[in-house]
Each structure stands twice: as structure tokens, then as C-alpha cells.
């Protein structure tokens, strides 16, 4: 089984090396690592290029793309288009993997025959404290159980589904579509990634809370879920705003 890892970034010179090192030092190295940069104006690309030799020593193919894109999910789609692996993971440049992430996910796909898997995640707050957000798959879907930085997806799923590039909730929207389509999804109860709060998906001005609630609710409704999920959406975004 071959694994591709994708990182999308823009002006991430302060964090890109930490993310890259978390991929480099996996207990089971991935087949390839694809970085999709949105024409950064700082030292992001130079720092990424400085790691090329280290990746070559580990026999990990490193591909660095730096060009204009239409946002974070357009960049992810570009990475998916380039990826050659049987399974694909996406870790953003503010976040990083635990050392066993690739190994655990490859074994999960082999043992279960799943099409998509995700795991527990450590949420690191701006004050340095952290907590674990658990992964679960249950009958009554809630995005509170799902963690995109830990998510690995089979090539056959990504051949059919891509991010819609509508708004910041596109990752959740794709997960909902895949689940609705009946693909086999597995939750792994092990921390496989660390998420740094305060990034693009967490910086929420007060005026953005209601639009985000509406976008989240729209995704539930588009996928056939009850109107009562409005309460879930309100609670999720309010808590996210407070913690950010």
C-alpha cells in the first residue's frame, strides 16, 4: 500500500518545517509528500526546499508546487490530482502528525477494507493547553466526532469526490457526501495528529459566527439531516469561537 501526504500552505515559514518533519520522521515513511504553496511571499518555499535532501535519504518523493490558487480547497484538489498513493492524507502547515500516523492508517485500511478513516486529534489552544477530540462513527452524524487533519481517504473515493471550493466548511461537506454515499468509514481511537488552534479555520471574527452556522447547517440539510441539527451547528460554532 502506497500513501501520499499533502500539505497546503501560504506564508507558513514559521511552521512548515515542523509539519514537514512530522511527515519525514514517520515510523513507516509515506511513498510521497506533496506541498502545494499558494505563491507565498515569505520564506516558506525556501524552507521547504531545504528539506529535499532529508526526504531523498528516506526515499520519500518530495514534490513542491508554488503557484496561484483559488483558496485552501483548490490547493488540496491540486495535491490530490498529483497524488499517486493508494490512500491520501492531508495535513495543513499549522498542524503536524504523530509519528505513527501513516503506519496506523495503512494497517487500518488493510485490516478493515475501509474507504475513509480518521482518528483522535490533540487540539492545542493558543494558551498552550490542549485537549483530545475523539473520533467516532455513529448512526446520528455529528461533525464533532470527525477530525479532518487525521483523515485518510482511498484513491477511489477521491477519484469520484473533490472539494467543492465553496467555503471554509468544504472538508466537512466532502466527508458528509462520502458518508451519505455509503462508503465504509472507520474511526481510530488513537491520537494521530495535532491541530494548532488559531489557524485559518479557527480565526473567527464575531460577525462571522452566524454565517458559519448557516454554512454548517446547509451541509447537514443538503445531506438529508433533520432541521434539528441547527442546534448542533449553533453550539459547535459558539464553542469554537470561545475557544479560539
Task: Characterize this entry briefly.
With 244 residues, this protein is of the alpha/beta class.
SSE diagram, text form:
Layout: E1 3-9, H1 16-24, E2 32-37, H2 44-49, H3 52-57, E3 61-66, H4 72-82, E4 87-90, E5 96-97, H5 101-112, E6 116-124, E7 130-133, E8 152-154, H6 155-160, H7 170-180, E9 185-196, H8 209-222, H9 229-243
Parallel strand pairs: 1-2, 1-4, 2-3, 6-9
Antiparallel strand pairs: 4-8, 5-9, 6-7, 6-8
Helix pairs in contact: 8-9
Question: Beta-sheet strand percentage?
Answer: 15-25%
> CATH superfamily assignment of the largest domain?
Spore Coat Polysaccharide Biosynthesis Protein SpsA, Chain A
- N-to-C series of helices and strands: EHEHHEHEEHEEEHHEHH
Silhouette: globular
Number of domain modules: 2
Please mark out the parts with pLDDT under 50 across 5 or more consecutive residues, or reply none: none
Write down the overall mean pLDDT: 92
- The appropriate CATH architecture of the largest domain is Alpha-Beta Complex
How many β-strands, per DSSP?
A: 9
Note the total helix count: 9
Give the terminus-to-terminus CA distance: 38 Å
How much is the radius of gyration in Å?
Answer: 17 Å
Give a quick account of the main beta sheet: strands, pairing sense, barrel closure. Answer: 9 strands, mixed
CATH class of the largest domain: Alpha Beta
Could you list some keywords that capture this structure?
alpha/beta; Spore Coat Polysaccharide Biosynthesis Protein SpsA, Chain A; 37% helix; 2 domains; nine-stranded mixed beta sheet; 244 residues
Amino acid at each position: 500500500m502506497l500513501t501520499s501526504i499533502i500539505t497546503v500552505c501560504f506564508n507558513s515559514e514559521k511552521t512548515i518545517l515542523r509539519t514537514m518533519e512530522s511527515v519525514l520522521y514517520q515510523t513507516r515513511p509515506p511513498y510521497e509528500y506533496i506541498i502545494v504553496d499558494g505563491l507565498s511571499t515569505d520564506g516558506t518555499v525556501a524552507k521547504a526546499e531545504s528539506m529535499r535532501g532529508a526526504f531523498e535519504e528516506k526515499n520519500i518523493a518530495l514534490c513542491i508546487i508554488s503557484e496561484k490558487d483559488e483558496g485552501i480547497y483548490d490547493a488540496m484538489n491540486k495535491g490530490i490530482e498529483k497524488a499517486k498513493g493508494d490512500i491520501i492524507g492531508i495535513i495543513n502547515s499549522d498542524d503536524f502528525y504523530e509519528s505513527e500516523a501513516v503506519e496506523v492508517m495503512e494497517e487500518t485500511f488493510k485490516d478493515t477494507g475501509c474507504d475513509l478513516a480518521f482518528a483522535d486529534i490533540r487540539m492545542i489552544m493558543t494558551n498552550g493547553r490542549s485537549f483530545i477530540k475523539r473520533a467516532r462513527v455513529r448512526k446520528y452524524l455529528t461533525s464533532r466526532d470527525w477530525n479532518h487533519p487525521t483523515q485518510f481517504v482511498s484513491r477511489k473515493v477521491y477519484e469520484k469526490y473533490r472539494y467543492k471550493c465553496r467555503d471554509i466548511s468544504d472538508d466537512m461537506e466532502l466527508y458528509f457526501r462520502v458518508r451519505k454515499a455509503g462508503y465504509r468509514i472507520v474511526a481510530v481511537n488513537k491520537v494521530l495528529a495535532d491541530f494548532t488552534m488559531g489557524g485559518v479555520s479557527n480565526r473567527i471574527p464575531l460577525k462571522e459566527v452566524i454565517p458559519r452556522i448557516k454554512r454548517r447547517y446547509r451541509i447537514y440539510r443538503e445531506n438529508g439531516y433533520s432541521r434539528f441539527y441547527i442546534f448542533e451547528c449553533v453550539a459547535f460554532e459558539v464553542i469554537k469561537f470561545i475557544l479560539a
